[in-house]
Amino acid sequence: MDSRRLPNIDGVAAALVDGDGRVVGWTAAAEHLLGLPAAQVTGRPAADLLADGAADAAALGRRTGEVRLRTGGGVPLEVAYQVLPLAGEHGEVRALVLATPADTVTRWRQDEAFTRELFLQDRIGLAFFDTDLRLLRTNTHLLPYTGLPTDLAGHRLGDFLQPQDAEATEEILRNVLTTGEPLVRATLPIRTLDDPGPGVMMEIQAFRLQAPDGSLIGVTALFGDVTELHRYRRRADVLHRATAAVGGSLSVAGTAEDLAGVLVPGLGTRAEVDIAEAVFTGDEPAVGADGLLRVRRTATAGPPGPDDRPLGPLGPLDRAELGRPAAAADGPPAMSAPLHARGGPLGRVTVRRDPDQGPYEAEDLELLREIAARAALALDNARRYTREHRAAVGLQRSLLPPAETAVPAATTASVYRPTDTATGVGGDWFDVIPLSGARVALVAGDVVGHGLQASATMGRLRTAVRTLADLDLEPDELLVHLDDLVSQLVVEGSEEERERGVADPSGATCVYAVYDPVSGICQAASAGHPPPALVHPDGRVEYLPVNPGPPLGVGGLPFETVECALRAGSVLALYTDGLIEGGAGGDLDEGMDQLAARLGEADLGGDLAAAGRAIVAEMSTAGLSDDVTLLLARLHPVPPSDTAAWTIGADPSAVAGVREAATRTLEEWGLDALVFTTELVLSELVTNAIRYAGGPVMVRLIRSSVLTCEVSDPSATQPRMRRARLTDEGGRGLYLVAQLTERWGSRYTRNGKTIWAEQPLDPPPLGR
C-alpha cells in the first residue's frame, strides 16, 4: 500500500501536513474530490493547493473555515475545512486537515438544524425506533399526554400503551421495517395504561431508515393527534346517515327503527325512541292539562340494560323533559333530546353508552339535538301521511260494497289490497248490483292514480254505474252512457284541479257483466279493462271472449257486448290490473296466465273469501306497485221449477186466466199469503199492457229471495206513476202497484219493455 495514501474517513477528504506545511499524506477521498493523485500532491507545500494564494494561506491559520482549492480539472473548488493538530511520535508537529465541498457542509448543517428543530417542536410527534422497535429518541415528552414514562428511550410501546393499541401500532411499524414501503396516514386509537377513557386518535406516518451501506437502522414515525377531526368526521357521518335513514320511510314505526339503527353505534351502545301515541293514528299529539304526554317505546337498538323498560306503552313525559335535551347526571353516560315538529311534541330519543367510553360532550348533545330535529320532521311527515292514508282507505272502503254478499244469482267474496307505496291508495273499485228478474250485475273498475283524489273520482264513477244499472241497460249501452259522463267530467275539470294533480277520470277502465240466473246467460262488455275469468265446475279456466273497447272518456268509439252460457256452479272472477302486473317486467299476458293457474288450483267450492285471499297473497309476494282488487262470484241458477210464464194476446178477457194461473202457481210454491196482492198487481200491469201496448203480452213469475212479477209488451214507452184526481177514472194503477210491492220498475228489452214488481216472500202482517 502506498504510504502516502491515508485511509478514508467517512468519505471526507483528508490530508496530513507536517510542521513545515508540506503534505505527507493524502486520502482516496481527497484524490476523488480534487482529481489529484497522492503522488502528485505529497511532498509539496499545502499552500500550493490554494487557488487564491496568500489570501487563502492566511485562512489556513484558522482551525475552521472555507477556502478555494485547485483541482486536477483546473476549476477551483470551494471547500469547508477543519484543522486537527496532531502530536507526532518524536515530538514533531503535524496536522490533519479535513475538507468537504462547502455546499455539502451547508446541507449537513441544514439537516442537523432540521433534525434538531423537529425533535424540539411540539406540533408533530416524532419517534425513532431501532430494528427491535425500541424507542431511541422521541419528542413525546414535549406533548401533553398523560401516562407516559419520563424517559422513553429503550422502552417498547407495550410498556406504556394498552396492549391492543401497542400491538396494532407495532404491526404497522414492523411492516414498514420489513418491506420498506412507507406508511401514509394510518389512523389508530392510542390509550395509555393509565387512561381508562377513550384515549386519542393518532394519525401515523412512518418510513424506514438505512445506513449508506444499506444496512437497517430503524424506523421513524411521525404522528399527530387527530381526535377532534376524527370526532367531527364521525359526527358529520352520523348526521348524514341519520338524515338519509329517517327520510326513506313514511311509516312512523319504520322511521323510529331507522333512527335507532343509526344512533347505534353512531352515538352509543343503546338507543331508545319514544313516540307519542297520537302519532300512530295520524292525530296531532298534545300535552294534557297535567303537562303529561302519553308515549310508546317504539324502537330500540343495542343490548338491553338492567333498567330498560320493555317495548309497549311508556309513562308520560313531563313538559320539562320535552322542552330541552339533558344529559344524565349519574349512571352510565346518557343523553336525551326531544322530538318536536311544527311547535308540537312528538316524543323523545335517548342514547346511552358504556362507562369506559367516557362521558358525552357538549358537541355530542348538540349533534343529538340536530338529529332529533330532522327525525321529528320525518316523523311528522309519516304522521300526516298516516292520517291521509287512513282517510283515503276509509273513503275508498266506504265507497265499496261489503267484502262478502249473497244474492239469488250469486255468492260473492272480494279482496281489496291497497298499494303500500307512498302515494297512497288508488282508484280500484268493484260492485255487486242486484237487478230485476233475480239478475245481478258484477262490476270492476280502475281509476289511474292514487290518493284521495283517485278515491273521490272512483266514487263518482261507481255512483254513475249504479244509477245507469238501475235503468237495466245492456252492458255496451251502459258503458256508452258512462263514457259520455266521463267525457263531461274531463271537460268540466278546472285548470286548478289539473295543476293540483287531481285524478283524471279519462284514465279509468271498467268491465260490466250481467248474469241472468233464469236463462244462465252472462252478458259482458269492457272499457279498456282486462276480461273476466270463468272457472268451470270441473276446474277449467278461461277468459270471457270480451273485446275491450277504449278506456272511459275517449269518446266516439263503440263497445261490444258478448254473451256466454254459464253452467251452474261456475265462478266468475273480476279483477283489476294490479293483480296481473306481477309477471316478468309487468307482462300482462304472463300475469293472466298466472291468475288462471291460481284460480284453477284454488278451492272455489269452499270458503270463497279464503280462496280469494290466498290467490291475492300468492300473486302479491313481491310487493305492490298498484292497488289489487279481486271479486269472485259463485253463480247460482234459478231452477225451472221456480219460474212460471204465460203469453196472452191483446184481449182484456185473458186477464182473468192469468190471475187464475198465477194463483195456482203460488199455491204450489206455498206462497198463499201472496195470492191476493199478486192478483192485484198482475191485473193492473197486464190490463195496462193490453190497453196501451197491444199484444202479445208475456207474464212471468220468478221465485228467488223475493217473488218477482214481470209483464212484458212490445211498446217502448216507459210507464210513469202520476197522482190521479178525484174525478179521474184511471191513473191509479202504478200507484197501487208501488204501495203493494217492495219495489218496482221497468226496463227496455230488445222487443219492447218489461215492467216488474217485487214482493218479499214473508210479507208483514196486514195493518203494518
Features:
768 residues, six-stranded mixed β-sheet
Instruction: Report the total helices.
Output: 17
Largest β-sheet summary:
6 strands, mixed
How much beta, percentage-wise? 25-35%
The helix content is 25-40%
Number of strands: 33
Low-confidence stretches: 724-730
* Side-by-side strand order of the widest sheet: 1-3-2-6-5-4
Rg over CA atoms, rounded to whole Å, is 51 Å
Give the integer mean of the pLDDT values.
84
Principal-axis shape equals: rod-shaped
End-to-end C-alpha gap? 149 Å
Main structural class: alpha+beta
Give structural notes.
- This protein has 768 residues and is α+β, with helices and mostly antiparallel strands.
- It contains 17 helices and 33 strands.
- The strands form 6 sheets. Strands 1-3-2-6-5-4 form a 6-stranded mixed beta sheet. A 6-stranded antiparallel beta sheet has the order 14-13-12-17-16-15. It has a 6-stranded antiparallel beta sheet with strand order 18-19-28-27-24-25, with helices on one face.
- Helix 6 (227-246) packs antiparallel against helix 7 (252-266), helix 6 runs parallel beside helix 9 and helix 9 runs parallel beside helix 10 (452-469).
- The N and C termini lie far apart (149 Å).
